[in-house]
TrEMBL record:
Any GO BP annotation: glutamate biosynthetic process
Residue ranges of domain Glutamate/phenylalanine/leucine/valine/L-tryptophan dehydrogenase C-terminal in the record: 212-453
Protein name: Glutamate dehydrogenase
Tagged with keyword NAD: yes
Organism, as annotated: Caryophanon tenue
Subunit structure: Homohexamer.
Pfam families, alphabetized: ELFV_dehydrog (PF00208), ELFV_dehydrog_N (PF02812)
Similarity comment: Belongs to the Glu/Leu/Phe/Val dehydrogenases family.
Lineage: Bacteria, Bacillati, Bacillota, Bacilli, Bacillales
Keywords associated with the record: NAD, Nucleotide-binding, Oxidoreductase
């Protein structure tokens, strides 16, 4: 009877908060999607922690501390003046300074920034390191821009952003469209304006100039370390498994590298123009040359490997039969239809390298069809975890070897997996890493909010 009453109170509380959230954010579908996924996981937590209801932690967690939006004016190589919109969402700093990447992509809007920053809170909590949740970026499209234009844009962006960030305040990094080159330009401008070498203000810097070894590889490697844990659970390994990876940025490239190292055959990769299928296994040297050295479209892979095929458009990549699917491109790239095709073709493991690449229908299909599913906030947390290791090195004015950072990354991914798995078991959802990771991350933030008191 008591459980029944608690359940009702917990369920009612969550429903009320979500209803209000939908009313207030009716035009932010990505944010509502991310929030719904987490809120749906939390009923058993509120049943066991009525103090979270008393402290109204849910309403406090779903409202960002602040959203900064600003004008970025820059000049192209022909002296034309352009205006873009910049953002920084400082969502929650209960566990540490706001932390999260910057995304430069024409799709960027407030909804996408908020979904990413919201996810980041729980992902960062899962790492066990002292970092809060934030995200930023701009609707600037880096495609086709010259190096000088990218530099001028980054400088203009930082000329406004610098006043809102700092090593103990908010620490941006990269995301889609922001890699080592952009972080370098942003860092240079911050240093110039501040007149101080505050290395810990940004992560993803170049090693030798405040950056951490293994940061570039960390999201992709961490994803594969996480999947290795999932495989081990089922007495399996990467050896001879067929893997489909979407994307061809940092996350995808280093996931492919580590999966191949463990003996998997990775047969596909993609960019926004389409995907390549190489049944003999992706030639990573060729892919790196195309993407990291030349910055070309992925179709040029056929010049290196004439037996491979290129298909324009990205949807059909999920029709390639595989044992393991690693979506590493962008949000909502796997919908219900794609999930059904993967399941019909025998996929057994899906783990998310991108943020929210599977929509809610796809996730439920995986969970209901015995596909072991590794959600983004756990599986791709290796990148931001290594960013926190970069912050530690910056604070200590030291730098660690590649092996040392990689070793810590492996330990972190192991403990994220274990915590997520155990939280799922504890709350009665054994084997469901979506619920497990949501609960494990949420509880850390909720406890912090309760201990801080109301403000
Ligand atoms: N953009 C990455 C993420 O989604 C990394 C963020 C960071 O290193 O701060 O987690």
């Amino acid at each position: 009877m008591t459980t029944e009453l608690n359940y009702t109170a917990a369920q009612q509380y969550i429903d009320e908060v979500f209803t209000q959230l939908k009313e207030k954010n009716a035009h932010q579908p990505e944010f509502l999607q991310a929030a719904e996924e987490i809120l749906l996981s939390l009923t058993p937590v509120f049943e066991q922690h009525p103090e979270y209801i008393t402290h109204n932690v849910l309403s406090r967690i779903v409202e960002p501390d602040r959203i900064i939006s600003f004008r970025v004016t820059w000049q192209d190589d022909n002296n034309n003046v352009h205006v873009n919109r910049g953002y920084r969402v400082q969502f929650n700093n209960v566990i540490g300074p706001y932390k999260g990447g910057l995304r430069f992509h024409p799709s960027v809007n407030e909804s996408i920034m908020k979904f990413l920053a919201f996810e980041q809170i729980f992902k960062n909590a899962l790492t066990g390191l002292p970092i809060g949740g934030g995200k930023g970026g701009s609707d600037f499209n880096p495609k086709g821009k010259s190096d000088a234009e990218i530099m001028r844009f980054c400088q203009a962006f930082m000329t406004e952003l610098y006043r809102h960030i700092g090593p103990d305040v908010d620490v941006p990094a990269g995301d889609i469209g922001v890699g080592g080159r952009e972080i370098g330009y942003l860092w240079g401008q911050y240093k110039r304006i501040r007149g101080a070498y505050e290395a810990g203000v940004l992560t993803g810097k170049t090693p030798g100039y405040g950056g951490s070894l293994a940061r570039k590889e960390a999201t992709g490697y961490g994803l594969v370390y996480f999947v290795a844990e999932m495989l081990r659970e089922k007495s399996e390994s990467f050896l001879d498994k067929t893997v489909v990876v979407s994307g061809s940025g940092n996350v995808a490239i280093y996931a492919i590298e580590k999966a191949q190292h463990y003996g998997a055959k990775v047969v596909a990769a993609s960019d926004s123009s389409g995907y390549i299928y190489d049944p003999e296994g992706i030639d990573l040297h060729a892919l790196k040359d195309i993407k990291e050295v030349k910055g070309e479209r992925i179709s040029t892979y056929l010049n290196y490997r004439p037996n491979a095929t290129f298909t324009p458009g990205c949807d059909a990549i999920w029709s390639i039969p595989c044992d393991i699917a690693l979506p590493c491109a962008t949000q909502n790239e796997i919908n219900g239809d794609a999930a059904r095709t993967l399941i019909d073709n025998g996929v057994k493991f899906v783990a998310e390298g991108a943020n929210m690449p599977s929509d809610l229908e796809a996730i439920n299909l995986f969970l209901d069809n015995d596909v072991y599913f590794g959600p983004a906030k756990a599986a791709n947390a290796g990148g931001v975890a290594t960013s926190a290791l970069e912050m530690s090195q910056n604070s200590g004015r030291t730098s660690w070897s590649f092996a040392e950072v990689d070793g810590k990354l492996q330990e972190i991914m192991h403990s994220i997996y274990t915590e997520s798995k155990e939280a799922a078991e504890k709350y009665g959802f054994a084997g469901n890493l979506v619920i497990g990771s949501n609960i494990a991350g949420f509880v850390k933030v909720a406890n912090g909010l309760v201990s801080e008191g109301v403000y």
